[in-house]
Amino acid sequence: MKRNKINCASCGKESLTKNEVGINIKLLGDNTTAYYCMDCLADYLEVTVQDIEDKIEEFKSEGCKLFE
Questions:
Q1: How would you write the pLDDT of the chain (68 residues) with one tens digit per residue?
Q2: CA distances from 11 to 1, 33, 39, 46, 65 (A)
Q3: Could you tell me which of 29, 23, 35 has the C-alpha nearest to residue 60?
Q4: Count of alpha carbons within 13 Å of 12, Cβ hemisphere only?
Q5: Residue 36 CA from chain centroid, whole number
């Protein structure tokens, strides 16, 4: 099954990765309609990209299927 390409709502970066989409869902809620690339999400949340990458690894280690 091919998934729809999702672009960053802020900068327009094309084709966000599965991890980028997944972390948006985890941090912004599954009803979110605006998805952000890692840089824009970090700016939006006022954290670093490394903070977000650490959270992705944490969720992956817990077995979350939203991440690769």
A1: 446 799 999 999 999 999 999 999 999 999 999 999 999 999 999 999 999 999 999 999 999 999 98
A2: 27, 15, 9, 16, 26
A3: 23
A4: 0
A5: 6
List Cα–Cα distances, 64 to 11, 15, 22, 32, 41, in angstroms: 27, 21, 9, 18, 20
Q: Which pair of tokens denotes residue 16?
A: 């966000």
For tokens 């948006």, the residue is 24
**What predicted TM-score, i.e. pTM, was given to this entire model?**
0.89
- At position 62, the amino acid (one-letter code) is E
